[in-house]
């Protein structure tokens, strides 16, 4: 495989990941579990049908991929998947109609008689509309899942899914209400300064420790806030970089988004978002904010900007 192919595969993978309305710590946790081969055997995806359908596709592809890192986009399983012809993806989506007993019985029959040991995904869209009768039929596959079988359930309203089903699934909320982060006090006031900070960081002219100080100085008594604003902004830059303008949150800053998206490498942006989320989770572990910010800025500069010539080397 030459480098061009490798890069395309990487971008394809990033593009899928970046399609989420927001990259959250929950998503990262699920991602890390999946990367470690520990996909929960039953996942209940809550959220809009668009968001859950995309996440379902992604997890199913990852589960069935035989290459590395999954989904590799190149193995036979990935090709079948992309063509929509993978034989081991079963979907129960009765397009608005009720999911009936016979549908589920057919599904269970197929699971029971699948080729030995083979991996299989079944998708049940609209789990919040399941009748207790149908849900009871499914419980066994959720409780004692046959090995190699991954159940992906989706529900616009996960709190309406029957408790017997819900309690047996890893609940993952794909899109959170837009108010959770942006409605924080001070978020809007900090945004212009964070945009300017990102510009400076990308230009690579300021020392990482100065970058850390200036970011923390934006809200010294509330160290998590600049990180929330920065993560939200970097996600938008990444969306623009990938040509995915649909999910942008900060449309009023479109000129800045486009300007910065041209300067920042895709992979660097993905790393930068991870670094911000890492720094935020370390704040709750009582790491001193100054040290935490400094570590983040050193690594972010390395990922996103070309270093200054006179910059000292950090371990
Ligand atoms: Zn693959």
Molecular structure report:
This protein is α/β, with parallel strands linked by helices and 315 residues long. It has two domains: 3-176, Rossmann fold, CATH 3.40.50.300; 180-304, Zinc Finger, Delta Prime, domain 3. Helix content is 54%, strand content 8%. The chain has helices spanning 3-18, 25-35, 49-64, 76-83, 101-112, 132-143, 163-166, 179-182, 187-203, 208-216, 224-241, 254-263, 266-283, 289-304, and strands spanning 42-46, 89-92, 120-125, 149-155, 170-173. The chain is elongated. Zinc ion is lined by residues 65-67, 70-72, 74-75, 77-78.
Largest sheet: 5 strands, parallel
- Tell me the radius of gyration: 22 Å
Strand residues, percent: 5-15%
Oligomeric organization of the protein chains: single chain
Number of discrete helical segments: 14
Main sheet: strand order: 2-3-4-1-5
User: Superfamily at the CATH H level of the largest domain?
Assistant: P-loop containing nucleotide triphosphate hydrolases
Overall body shape: elongated
Question: Low-confidence segments, ≥5 residues, pLDDT <50?
Answer: 1-23, 307-315
CATH architecture of the largest domain: 3-Layer(aba) Sandwich
Q: How many β-strands, per DSSP? A: 5
Query: What pattern of helices and strands is seen along the backbone?
Result: HHEHHEHEHEHEHHHHHHH
Q: Based on helices, strands and strand pairing, what is the structural class?
A: alpha/beta
Q: On the 0-100 scale, what is the average pLDDT? A: 79
Q: Number of folding domains?
A: 2
* Heterogens: zinc ion
What's a quick, concise take on this entry?
The chain has 315 residues and is of the alpha/beta class. It has 14 helices and 5 strands. It has helices spanning 3-18, 25-35, 49-64, 76-83, 101-112, 132-143, 163-166, 179-182, 187-203, 208-216, 224-241, 254-263, 266-283, 289-304; strands at residues 42-46, 89-92, 120-125, 149-155, 170-173.
């Amino acid at each position: 495989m030459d480098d061009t192919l490798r890069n395309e595969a990487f971008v394809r993978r990033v593009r899928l990941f970046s399609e989420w309305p927001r990259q959250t710590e929950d998503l990262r946790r699920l991602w890390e579990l999946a990367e470690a081969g520990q996909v929960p055997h039953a996942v209940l995806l809550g959220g809009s049908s668009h968001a859950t359908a995309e996440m379902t596709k992604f997890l199913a592809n990852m589960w069935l991929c035989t290459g590395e890192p999954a989904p590799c986009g190149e193995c036979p399983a990935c090709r079948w998947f992309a063509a929509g012809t993978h034989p081991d993806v079963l979907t129960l989506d009765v397009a608005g109609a009720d999911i009936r007993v016979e549908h589920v019985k057919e599904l269970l029959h197929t699971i029971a008689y699948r080729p030995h040991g083979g991996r299989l995904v079944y998708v049940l869209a609209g789990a919040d509309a399941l009748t207790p009768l149908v849900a009871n039929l499914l419980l066994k596959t959720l409780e004692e899942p046959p090995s190699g079988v991954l159940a992906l359930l989706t529900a616009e309203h996960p709190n309406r899914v029957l408790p017997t089903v819900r309690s047996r699934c890893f609940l993952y909320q794909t899109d959170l209400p837009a108010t959770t982060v942006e409605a924080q006090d001070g978020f809007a006031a900090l945004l212009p300064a964070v945009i300017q900070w990102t510009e400076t960081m990308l230009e690579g002219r300021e020392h990482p420790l100065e970058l850390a100080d200036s970011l923390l100085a934006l809200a010294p008594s509330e160290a998590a806030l600049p990180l929330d604003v920065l993560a939200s902004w970097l996600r938008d830059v990444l969306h623009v970089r990938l040509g995915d303008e649909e999910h942008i949150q900060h449309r009023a800053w479109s000129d800045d988004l486009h300007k910065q998206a041209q300067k920042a490498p895709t992979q660097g942006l993905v790393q930068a978002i991870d670094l911000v989320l890492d720094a935020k989770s370390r704040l709750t572990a009582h790491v001193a904010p100054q040290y935490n910010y400094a570590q983040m800025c050193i690594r972010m500069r390395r990922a996103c900007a070309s270093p200054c010539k006179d910059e000292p080397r950090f371990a």
